[in-house]
Design brief:
By secondary structure, the protein is mostly helical. It has three domains: 5-106 and 162-226 and 337-367, HUPs (Rossmann fold, 3-Layer(aba) Sandwich), CATH 3.40.50; 110-154; 255-334, Tyrosyl-Transfer RNA Synthetase, CATH 1.10.240.10. It is 55% helix and 5% strand. It is built from 15 helices and four strands. Strands 3-2-1-4 form a four-stranded parallel sheet. Helix 3 (93-102) packs parallel to helix 15 (338-367) and helix 12 packs across helix 14 (311-335). The chain is globular. The two termini are 22 Å apart. Bound molecules: tryptophanyl-5'AMP (TYM). Tryptophanyl-5'AMP is lined by residues 7-11, 19-20, 23-24, 46, 49, 167, 170-171, 179, 181-182, 184-185, 226-228, 237-238.
Length: 373
């Protein structure tokens, strides 16, 4: 009997942060360590997703391999045959299924994806800001800046637009049931469920519909999807695209630098440690981070630290835990053996091609591209 599949991916750019780590990487690695006898675990590097927004292509190959190393350093057991680690572009069925699904996806449906709206707006804003900072602000420079931002918006790629369809293909090719992702990917996961249901209604049982987001949270023992917030602006999520880097802790940060970022995290003037996301978002975020670093339930951490009055003392505890975590992680990263890693990638990619091609053929037969068996 085939085992239910748990699957996730983290985009291959050199800048994974603690939000990515705790939101997606750790839940699946924990599963891989404890439940691999009952589940197939797919951990992949979505390299085709890495240039939906502009990147330096000379660096991509190195970043892909670095990403694979990060999974190993985070504890993915490479010697287990139920656990697969692979590069998306090495399994061409991902691109082929995307095209088929594209043709059953509405333009309006994709236009409503909030991540597309945010990222495409940001490309325009960045061009505007860059152009404005290049000269004195007067009417002419403002007009030039506006023109630059319009040009940048018109360069928003089709890849960014149909990225959720590629993500649905990533999931549906392997009949994945559980997909641990952070809160920001909920809409994309819902789309994967929608398109699977739509294709099944039209063509018969083609795809496994992934579990609802609520069922996924239950499976991973959480009340809701994780959202680690930016340290400087704790009302927005921690994100790779933050240019200053001050609000984000990257897995590659020097431990001392990360500790400094925690010490200067934005808090409030209430002078009382309390978990209240609305009224005290900065302190609540630090409590969330501490619970994750100590691998303890939030309740326990709340019970221990709520009521403290000196934020400096509390921050120092979080900062110490953070530098300890990074030191440990970076030591393990340096020890990852490249030869073992490449062998694992190649072995997984062979198995994944077989599984993905079976789903692709089923789909091609259903839509009439291949004769039915
Ligand atoms: P990506 O690379 O943007 O992010 C990787 C994972 O990290 C989670 N995440 C966060 N979790 C908590 N707090 C945050 N501040 C935070 N920021 C990011 C994301 O939710 C994500 O789970 N589209 C995906 C990659 C992908 C994928 C897939 C995932 C491609 N195909 C198929 C699952 C299944 C992405 O861009 O994630």
């Amino acid at each position: 009997m085939t085992k239910p599949v748990i699957l996730t991916g983290l985009r291959a750019n050199n800048d994974l942060h603690i939000g990515n780590y705790f939101g997606a990487m750790l839940p699946i690695i924990d599963m891989a360590k404890t439940r691999s006898a009952d589940y197939q675990v797919n951990m992949f590097i979505p390299d085709l997703h890495s240039f939906t927004t502009p990147i330096d292509h000379d660096q991509l190959q190195g970043q892909i391999m670095n990403n694979a190393k990060l999974y190993a350093a985070a504890g993915l057991p490479l010697d287990n045959n139920n656990i697969h680690l692979y590069r998306q572009s090495y399994v061409p069925a991902h691109s082929e299924l995307t095209w088929i699904l594209d043709c059953f996806t509405g333009f309006g449906e994709m236009s409503r994806m909030t991540q597309f709206k945010d990222k495409s707006a940001k490309l325009g804003e960045d061009a505007y800001a860059k152009s404005m900072s290049a000269g004195d602000s007067n009417l002419v420079t403002t007009i030039v800046a506006l023109e630059d931002s319009t040009k940048a918006s018109s360069r928003v790629s089709l890849g960014l637009f149909n990225y959720p369809v590629l993500m649905a293909a990533d999931i549906l090719l392997y009949d994945a049931r559980y997909v641990p992702v952070g809160d920001d990917q909920t809409q994309h996961l819902e789309f994967a469920r929608d398109i699977a249901g739509r294709m099944n209604n039209r063509f018969g049982e083609l795809f496994t519909v992934p579990e609802s987001v609520k069922r996924q949270h239950e499976f991973f023992g959480k009340d809701q999807g994780l959202r680690i917030m930016d340290l400087v602006n704790p009302t927005k999520k921690m994100s790779k695209s933050d240019e200053t880097g001050k609000g984000v802790i990257f897995l590659g940060d020097e431990p001392a630098t990360a500790a400094k970022k925690i010490m200067s995290a934005t808090t409030d003037d209430k002078a009382l440690v309390k978990y209240d996301r609305a009224a005290q978002p900065g302190i609540s975020n630090l409590l969330d981070i501490l619970a994750l670093l100590q691998a303890k339930p939030l309740r326990e951490v709340q019970a221990k630290f709520e009521g403290l009055e000196r934020y400096g003392d509390f921050k120092k505890i979080v900062a110490t835990e953070m530098s300890r975590f990074l030191e440990d992680f970076q030591t393990r990263l340096a020890q990852v053996d490249s030869t073992t890693l490449i062998t694992k990638l190649e072995t997984s990619e062979r198995t994944m091609n077989t599984q993905a091609n079976a789903t692709l053929l089923r789909t091609q037969q259903a839509v009439g591209l291949r004769p039915k068996a």
